[in-house]
Amino acid sequence: MVLLVVSSPKGGVGKTTLVANLAVALRRRGRPVTAIDFDSQNALRFLLAPGHDGELGVARCTAQGLPWSSAVVDGLDGVRVAPYGEATTAERLRMKDVLVEPTLAEALNSLARSPDEIVIADTTPGDGRLQERLEALADLKLIVLLADAGSMALVPTYRDGLMLRPMSEQPNTFGVLNQVDPRRRLSRDIAEFIAAHAAERFIGVVHYDESLAEAAARGEAVVAVASDSVGAMDIDAIAGRLDRLTSSGSR
């Protein structure tokens, strides 16, 4: 199993939409993929399994001692989805308390069907205990940032400025610059700065593309229904790099 943990320093950066489309893009490249939602907003299921309306998810499974496989549903293009699910406050808190690293590793491994399977974890924005435990187990980590002033203001301090440090420090951590709009000067300047000063740290750039939001609103993945759109091509390029980095010959 390959564990890919996707995080962001703040909400509203398009992380969950990116996770959903990366999952589909990797599946379309032939990789078995399971996407798991660790965010209590429970939004990933709306993007990857829009027809699913069940309440059971990994939070309630954890609280009740059920295997996470009990919550797995079939999603778009053959991607399997483990939603966060409906949960009480007590169940959400118990999930954070129960999932120490050995227990978390066992639960994640139970989802994988083959050594080549990619398990993509969509996490809560910011930092927290569960986030730290997931990242300690991760084979690869993606940090999603917007090409805006809010995200860039966090870069010097987030993870001790990791996104601007050499790849020799935490070489399994990459950034994704999301919603880059060349029509906006600040967005364009940020993209150019990243290209000049942190190109090796960033695995890719996703340009602003209304097709992404339109596909999500229809319960579809843009990489499947509008593969020639700029956003879809950007995401597929990132998926290609992830596929190469996580293939059995590269590990």
TrEMBL record:
InterPro entries: Cellulose_synthase_operon_BcsQ, DNA_Partitioning_ATPase, P-loop_NTPase. It holds the Pfam family CBP_BcsQ. It comes from the Bacteria. NCBIfam families: cellulose_yhjQ (TIGR03371). This is Cellulose synthase operon protein YhjQ. It comes from Caulobacter segnis. The lineage of its organism: Bacteria, Pseudomonadati, Pseudomonadota, Alphaproteobacteria, Caulobacterales. The gene is yhjQ.
